[in-house]
């Protein structure tokens, strides 16, 4: 869901953040540290040592807003179209890959030229998990998500209900069920014909 934003520190900059397992913290020299850059927690950068056993999988649904799991519990590398790569997060159950954002290779490049792999989990392409080494130079940017539509103030819904004492419809501000019938949505006054 988050990446490390320390742009001045190339070891950490852009690294996926990983959570600790429930009830555990990372040994970081400070109390209650529950989130660290992936490479730090796995011991491939910084001085934390290998704390992989403490890493929890990111919840797939929240790992990357607007993305869905690669179907069939497959990995990002199963996505054959770089243009579709940014729509997914890795669907494997593997702790290192599950929930990782899928990232595409730049046009004309491949993360594995022998197999023409144009999509990989973020940590794999950056060399912090798996055996691909750092291939950051091949990573293409995903397009920015479309902004959410502006919220418009809508008028409060109105409902009309048949009154039990007359044949008229009345405009009401809340949904109510009368003894002679139930309400239906409307925005205007109307009169029933008996």
What report would you give on this structure?
The protein has 194 residues and is mainly β. It is 8% helix and 15% strand. It has 4 helices and 11 strands. The chain has helices at 38-41, 60-63, 82-85, 122-125, and strands at 17-19, 35-37, 68-69, 88-89, 102-104, 119-121, 159-162, 169-172, 177-178, 181-182, 184-185. Strands 8-7-11 form a 3-stranded antiparallel beta sheet, with no helix packed on it. It has a two-stranded antiparallel sheet with strand order 1-2. Mean pLDDT is 75; it is low at 153-180 and 182-192.
Which strand order do you get reading across the main beta sheet?
8-7-11
Characterize the overall form: globular
Q: Ranges with pLDDT <50 over ≥5 residues?
A: 153-180, 182-192
Percent of residues in helices comes to: under 10%
Q: Which keywords apply here?
A:
two-stranded antiparallel ribbon; 3-stranded antiparallel β-sheet; single chain; 4 helices; 194 residues; globular; mainly beta; disordered C terminus
Question: How are the secondary structure elements laid out?
Answer:
Layout: E1 17-19, E2 35-37, H1 38-41, H2 60-63, E3 68-69, H3 82-85, E4 88-89, E5 102-104, E6 119-121, H4 122-125, E7 159-162, E8 169-172, E9 177-178, E10 181-182, E11 184-185
Parallel strand pairs: 3-4
Antiparallel strand pairs: 1-2, 5-6, 7-8, 7-11, 9-10
